[in-house]
Design brief:
Chain lengths: ~260, ~400
């Protein structure tokens, strides 16, 4: 058993590199994943431009406020596709091959989550550039690094959920439906689109339990260069959330029949 | 090599997908598992390959208990699933390289093995091809070459020739025979093609709704029916008392009735045929048609499961089968149920309304299916397989099965 455990890291690396190779060969998918966030940023941003004129609105320009929200949205969309690509592997027999190979199952899960994290970081980097061009500003080097950390934590957590769901549901249609059903409410119940102070009281309460809120707040803090206690709080909560989801995903894979 | 003792698998409590299976396969054998879809073949193979856990019973593969030491078991075999397990977006050699790495082989050995395997499967120099661009037969070959990269002594094949054209099928058989004879590899394969198991296997097990009906060599199973078979068709199915009279006659080793057709199995059928007909005449029976044939696996199957091969092999092999359907996955099953319910529901409506457009459509499909022409659709099979039946019957009529069996008889 020990002999196999030492292969955990190399197995994860081989599988991660394989997924990366596939993404590299079909880069279009990475860009397609950006289409929807860009629409939100450009069109939704214009539509609600006037919002920033309201009293007590935290930023001068709505795009400045919206950008961290759209970054987190990109992570959610990307993560929900991770499960769909798992189903593709299940359907064409690739996953079955892996499950009968002498590798620890957690390396299959981890390689998938890391791959998703990597793809999303690439997407977010592009998004940050586009947002800067339309006046959202640019975080400093420190901030940029921590944006990547927040994005990675969120993507590990949510793609773990998506993979676990995919493994349970085993069908595309319900998975896509559930993905859509979850992502939008998660965004509405966070400060992605409007400040929390603007929400009715009960929504504020819900948003306190929503990991997406902490993600948005953390990214916003990076943009503002305010890496103080609330920021570290958010990072802590996100770490717990992603570790918990990853544990669930690994357990689902181990139990899979 | 494989020892299965009192294996039971229940997906839902009380519903046994496999019911007390005991089976031993020695090194160097080719063991063929035969049965219709849903018989439990894939479940058995998934248990042997550690993809499923048995409910009870002990299973050892290559000397390791599948529950206690799954990783050692996985190291010991190669596995060919129903689907091609290769990534279509990678090249042949990239797939093989990854496989070798996951079996923890040194790079140098992987390179050597890749060349030997591609050579063995007559694909040398094609390592750079995209898997997605290969034909089904070639994909299957690469699939097997990849599965063998770690030189296992045992290879599991779950319906390896499904979806292949006749030429690719017979090619594949030749490779599998070679692996067994020249490389001494133990093969454990499932199939729902009778001729495939007949061709390849040294021993055959017939599985029917979770029960292992019989194990034996292909010849032994065929001999149990005698040398010849007389197929008689009558205007209507024979009465039970008439049948029992026929059964009592000393000539016949076995008598099987399938609706209007009655099959008599006997030695020395050529000489006995005139007498048999005369004797039937004295019973007041006049056959509509008579055919003297050699028993095939079709007959063996009929004897041990009581089901006609072509008709029984009609359950859904389509998109809802395989991985997704397998497993004790209640969510998936729920969705599956819904998907299957809607066509059934339509059939019910159709009965109520007594023939609308769907009915017409149904009739057309029915008349397209040669054997049922002019006959009322079989009510029982209709109820059992409301929707995918026609399409799958078409599949079962694939020339290599039905036609070749017929030509053997004739």
């Amino acid at each position: 058993m020990r002999a196999y455990r030492t292969h955990f890291i190399s197995d994860t690396r081989y599988l991660f590199l394989k997924s990366l190779k596939l993404t590299w060969r079909m880069p279009m998918w990475t860009f397609f994943g950006l289409v929807q966030p860009l629409l939100w940023l450009l069109i939704f941003g214009q539509l609600f431009k006037g919002l920033s004129k309201l009293p007590k609105f935290p930023t001068k320009d709505y795009v400045q406020f919206l950008t961290p929200g759209v970054i987190v949205m990109t992570v959610l969309f990307g993560a929900s596709w991770s499960g769909v690509s798992l189903l593709r592997d299940l359907r064409n027999g690739v996953m079955e091959r892996l499950l009968v190979a002498p590798i620890v199952r957690s390396s299959i899960v981890l390689s998938r989550l890391l791959h998703n994290g990597f793809t999303v970081i690439v997407q977010v980097s592009l998004l940050v550039v586009v947002a800067a061009l339309i006046g959202a500003g640019f975080p400093n080097a420190h901030g940029l690094f921590f944006v990547c950390i927040v994005v990675l934590l969120l993507s590990l957590g949510f793609s773990a959920i998506s993979n676990a769901l995919a493994m349970r549901l085993k069908q595309e249609e319900p998975l896509v439906v559930m993905g859509n059903m979850l992502t939008l409410p998660l965004l509405f119940f966070s400060s992605a689109l409007v400040p929390v102070d603007f929400m009715p009281h009960w929504m504020q309460l819900v948003s306190r339990m929503n990991p997406v809120s902490y993600g948005v707040e953390a990214v916003r803090a990076c943009y503002e260069g305010q890496l103080f206690q609330p920021f570290w709080m958010s990072i802590g909560i996100l770490s717990i959330f992603s570790l918990f989801s990853m544990a669930v995903a690994v357990m689902t894979f181990q139990k899979v029949e | 090599m494989i020892h299965i003792n009192h294996l039971i698998k229940e997906f839902d409590p009380g519903v046994r997908a496999l019911d007390d299976i005991s089976l031993h396969v020695e090194a160097g054998e080719v063991f063929g598992f035969l049965g219709p879809n849903g018989a439990g073949k894939t479940t058995t193979i998934k248990i042997l390959t550690t993809l499923l856990r048995p409910t009870s019973g002990t299973v050892t593969v290559a000397g390791h208990d599948i529950n206690k030491n799954p990783l050692a078991v996985r190291m010991s075999f190669g596995y060919i699933g129903q689907q091609i397990g290769l990534d279509p977006a990678l090249t042949v050699s990239e797939n093989m390289l990854l496989q070798g790495r996951l079996y923890h082989l040194p790079e140098k050995i992987i390179q050597e093995r890749m060349e030997t395997m591609l050579d063995l499967f007559d694909m040398s120099g094609q390592g750079g091809q995209w898997v997605g661009s290969l034909s089904g037969g070639l994909k299957r070959r690469v699939d097997i070459a990849t599965a063998l990269i770690h030189k296992p002594k045992l290879l599991f094949l779950d319906e390896p020739t499904i979806g292949l054209d006749p030429k690719s099928r017979s090619d594949l058989w030749a490779y599998l025979k070679h692996l067994n004879k020249e490389e001494g590899m133990t093969l454990f394969l499932t199939s729902h093609y009778l001729d495939e198991v007949d061709q390849l296997s040294t021993r055959v097990g017939i599985l029917d709704s979770g029960h292992l009906r019989i194990i034996g060599t292909p010849d032994m199973l065929k001999d149990s029916l005698g040398q010849d078979a007389i197929h008689l068709t009558f205007n209507q199915a024979l009465q039970p008392e008439v049948l029992s009279t026929i059964r009592k006659k000393e000539w016949f080793k076995e008598v099987i009735q399938q609706e209007e057709e009655t099959r008599l199995y006997l030695e020395n059928g050529q000489q006995l045929l005139p007498k048999v007909l005369q004797w039937l005449d004295t019973l007041g029976l006049t056959a509509k048609s008579v055919l003297l044939a050699r028993p095939t696996f079709d007959d063996v199957y009929l004897k041990y499961t009581g089901k006609n091969w072509l008709l029984s092999d009609a359950s859904g092999q389509g998109e809802w089968g395989g991985w997704r359907g397998g497993g004790n996955n209640k969510w998936a099953q729920k969705w599956q149920k819904k998907a299957l319910e809607s066509p059934t529901g339509r059939d019910k409506n159709l009965e109520k309304e007594g023939g609308d457009t769907w009915k017409k459509w149904d009739d057309q499909a029915e008349s397209g299916w040669g054997e049922n022409q002019g006959k009322p659709p079989n009510q029982k099979t209709d109820a059992e397989h409301p929707w995918p039946r026609k399409k799958n019957q078409g599949e079962a009529k694939w020339p290599n099965d039905a036609e070749s069996n017929k030509s053997k008889r004739g």
